[in-house]
DNA sequence: TTGTATGCGTTATCAT
DNA sequence: ATGATAACGCATACAA
């Protein structure tokens, strides 16, 4: 096994100079048809492929985008990754995958790694704990796009998310319209937009019905662990438990449902449930769950498109916030209730 | 925004030569304590990080491993990716993610991309249709490890998989022991090891009971689409339908279950079901499914370990086949049946 | 239209 | 212990 061919080998084989080879390769500049043929032939014969590392070093740009997600165990992020990979491919971009497991320490480590400029841009879901490192990345001219969630401190950065406030309000109104007056919500951490905005939308809908928020029914849970399940249990043990609940923390949906199942809470008879999720497996669950479906392909599309544009500096430096609408899908986990019972 | 610091800038700032900086960076060769301090200080001050591309070009090796999976929509692959990323991180390896969507064309495209030596090794699930390209990769001295599945043509390459034959035999014996005599199996394509070996294990168990294989009960389905569902429907419409079925194609589990649900086939009363899967969502399904649980963390661990060793040429060139045991988990989707009914 | 020469940032060799 | 300097493979400005 002899060592791989370089551009010089090709040039020699074709009897031309390296510039000519480079030109036919990148279609940059003129080249005589005859020579072009020779070059192509040589490339084929030598099985030549330009080395990414060399190209990158030469013109100082990386066509790799770092994708820093929370955790691929969550089908939401897994599907997001799937679509991001697809969108990236159609633009000839590579995806360097990393996960934080919602652990700030791992996130820090990942960001630290990327400081070597191995990526030309970043798409990520921040844990909320490494503000300065994200900033440092950006200050190194590595564009960053947050997807799904953001952090209040990052107002000046690009974000692609669903319409969280509106989606939560819709879910809440759905229950309100069916007579529910005591509605619980299990949200994400309030320092993330997915946590805060969904609670906001929830409160907004309550206000429309002249209802005040009951703090015992608003339970922010971390994205990690099964705090959502214990929060659910606590709500159910109240003297006046909720008749409906919105699980607005995608990462807590599964554990919450498992807890309800184990506690033999009947859905929707004992409790109406709306979830933020669009896991294809939910359709196999009994009863099928009423859900806010996140348009994952749109999130992926816009994230990649945005980061791609930034990488090519095709955009004015003003921060963008792309919000895509989510669909509300009524299924069988929510039922009507007598408002006076609440 | 001034341009990022290079090793030369650091050297200048510290009043030393680049060699000294390189030595403190890589701990290769001696350096006076005093100068070392200056260098460290300069690095800190200039916020310097060595560029990956330059390092890579210099010593011609990539610490990135390509991960080519079928599809992250399948929780099995998603979890596998999650664990591979984790294992890679602990070894300071990066993961370049690509998907085939089980499409040979996309697989070809992905492999073609990797010919640029941007990765130092590959972990993947082959579709079965790009033999020569996989070979070419390997001939370029880019080590390849197949995970989960392999192809019969690839006997000479590294593989990490579960004990497919044994696992399928166990599943089959489980049903046989409960009186089932007509047992169907929905497998993967027979040109993949996951397809062929599982059918082999199934047949082996049947033979132990003196049973002959009925071709109508053996249904290989592609990993893509919902052929598993139609195969299931066909089996059920036989004059003598199976009383038990093994869904040995992970990618077909969901669609098959959906079909059964829609057809109002009661599990396990009308049909006993064993699935190859270890999706955490299955526990929410009624009834909980008897399953062959694949030890995903072990698959990831061995894959990364193996490719890492290959990348460092720490291994004799003989191909390795790491097989890890799968657990059989009996739950509620299989029941006893009177053998005479079959 | 083609070729030469230089730079990209790092590592490694080899004098000093 | 330290510092020039030559690779590494490619792109490109500039000369021919």
Automatic annotation (TrEMBL), chains A, B:
MF GO annotations: DNA-binding transcription factor activity; transcription cis-regulatory region binding
Domain HTH lacI-type: 5-59
Superkingdom classification of source: Bacteria
Repressor recorded as keyword: yes
Keywords: DNA-binding, Repressor, Transcription, Transcription regulation
One matching Pfam family: LacI
InterPro entries xref list: HTH_LacI, LacI/GalR-like_sensor, Lambda_DNA-bd_dom_sf, Peripla_BP_I
Gene3D superfamilies: 3.40.50.2300, lambda repressor-like DNA-binding domains
SMART domains tied to this protein: HTH_LACI (SM00354)
Name the record gives this protein: LacI family transcriptional regulator
Originating organism: Streptomyces botrytidirepellens
